[in-house]
Write a structure and sequence with these properties.
Blueprint lengths: L1 E7 L2 E6 L9 E10 L2 H7 L15 E9 L11 E4 L2 E2 L5 H4 L10 E2 L11 E5 L3 E3 L6 H4 L2 H14 L7 E4 L3 H12 L5 E4 L3 H9 L4 E3 L2 H12 L4 E6 L4 H10 E9 L13 H6 L3 E4 L5 H12 L11 E4 L3 H9 L7 E4 L1
Parallel strand pairs: 10-11, 10-13, 11-12, 13-14, 14-15, 16-17
Antiparallel strand pairs: 1-2, 3-4, 3-8, 3-17, 4-5, 5-9, 6-7
Helix pairs in contact: 4-5, 4-10
Amino acid sequence: MKAALLTAPFHFEIIDRPTPVPAPGEALVRVLRAGICGSDVHIFRGEYARDQLPRVPGHEFAGEVVDVRAWPGSIVIGDLVTADINIGCGSCMHCQAGSPMLCGLVSQIGVHRDGVFAQYVTVPCGNLLVLPSVIGPAVGALLEPLGCVARNLRRIGLRAGQRVLVIGAGPMGMLHIQTAKSLGAGTVMVLEPDPVRADLARRLGADITAFTKEEALNAMQRADGGPGFDVAVDCVGNAELVEFAARVVRSGGTVGCFGLDRPEHLARIPLSHFVLSEKSLVSSVGASLADMRSALDLIVNAGLNTAPYTGAVYPLQDIAQAFEAFAVRKVALKVQITF
């Protein structure tokens, strides 16, 4: 089979290797679409999981089951599937609670084991989500990132009517805007300096767009007199923006940390102000199968618009160009690989 092996930062090699053989309890999946995630870009640049190289990265995907080994469940050959990328021990408190991404022994597809930038991948059957016939591979590959967003807003405890600030209108910020509106949020503002992204954010449901932090503050005061947002979510991964989010949420409000910053970048949040105003800081990482089912419901039953995320497609042999396009924003939102 063909696979894109990241041998060193910034260096992919398209290689031929034997098709993997699934172990008992695993399925062999023929990958049909694979999405590039921001974390894949960090791996590509050597900023994350560098000690795991060489590695076939990639974890957002949809594909067809072509082989199943010793699995008594409902996964059958021919199923169109996607997967929870987090393979936990199965017995710790986190795995038992349905959060294998927090397991101390977690192995992630595309990070600790070879991922989906290849024609075939093996996945434990218990991690697979069978997709309904109304969902094709391009949309199926979007369920993992959308599941991450659904998990984040669930952990935040977003309620209908709440005022939300989304910081950053990249693909994950856009999905936060759409999901928040689908869940009944009131006014949703996006802070995004790129006018093209800001315009798309408005078309996807943002009520107010701001290009600078000052504009966001002024718009907030005009909208509701300035008590602050109920929820502010940083989707960029920037310590200074987390500090800003902590300033603009109201007393009793919630700051959501979703983006990843470099470990050496520290956010300075006045502890006394945070405690005395009863603000909350909530983080989230990854998506469980339950979160991905919530994402599926958002698409199938709530009609979440997926078109802006599925139009930029590159063949596997052009994966380096695909990463460049995704990283420098030459395309509007997501980039997917086809095989």
